Amino acid sequence: MVGRTSPRLARAAGFTLIELLVVIAIIAILIALLVPAVQKVREAAARAQCSNNMKQFTLATHMCNDTNKRLPPQAGTFGGAYYAPLFFHLLPYIEQKSVWNNATWMDYSAFVGQANPNPGTVINIGVIWPTWDSVVNANGTYTWLRQTYIPIYQCPSDPSRGNCIDWCNGDASYAGNFQVFGGAQNSKSSTNWDGQASIPKSIPDGTSNTILFAEKYARCNGTGNPGGTWWMRGVYHGYQSFNGTNSPGADDSFPGDRLSAVFAGGRGHDGVQFLTGTASMFIVMPPNFLKNPGPCDRRVATSPHPGGMNVALADGSVRFLSQAISATTWWEAITPAGSEVLGSDW
Questions:
Q1: Of 214, 184, 215, 225, whose CA–CA distance to 202 is shortest?
Q2: Helix (H/G/I), strand (E/B), else coil: 126
Q3: Which residue, 265, 267, 316, 253, is CA-closest to 88?
Q4: pTM
Q5: Which of 37, 166, 178, 314: disulfide with 182, CB 3.0–4.6 Å?
Q6: What is the chain's percent helix, strand, coil content, to nearest 5?
């Protein structure tokens, strides 16, 4: 009869429940196989960006060395700036001279935790001296210098970024080798973080065998809360006016403290001792970095990458060190004048 549909043809027009479940299962399996691959690709891209960041500021360090005939200190007076940390001194060489120049502005009435500078009390002190109270003056709009975002100072793989106290955009994911910038002779000093170093004179072990920079989590509370890395940490507070029990200078951190961008030496203003020797071995992807006590150690370098860590060498190159490298070889690559022969795992 015209218009009637065969039962066999009607059944062939759709899927049974079992067939649908099979298709869904296959799709789920494919997604499960694809997600790790996508994550690996993303991590590889992020690691490459982190490496490229290090390459840029390491080459900037060489430019700084060539211009000033020496390396900047881990913290100290250098290159026309007073009492500033390493990553501040590098600003003119990474196309951030305007940020460097803004260290002449300060809100002398500022206090700990103050959300914004007071335009009525912002003054130009006439010298480059970054402090906790320094401000960025953008056509009469004032923000804190300590909260300035410097793109190449942050690694996109660093999961701890954004867990700041009040510096936030001032997070850093890298740190300087104290044995080079601070000086081996000052490893336990809480007052002198200037090694007076230069390339190649101060690195007789060889520039291709000496680490200048390593990665370090922006926040790391495991051995003390707060802990972490801020590119502008290692400054004085400036003048403060308090209504409570605090006194002017209560938050000074010069030449450094628990939040400084440093590893492999130096004693902080607050008594924190950054670890040296084989005890300074870097940590890879510590979980629960906000937990206190916890597995993240602010006293050593910290990698956000599976399997190892990016380091920048004194010859300007960037290298990925395997997590399997021995603590002895790690330390030998940190010391610039130890006369060691690096192990086969280098």
A1: 184
A2: coil
A3: 253
A4: 0.86
A5: 178
A6: 30, 20, 50
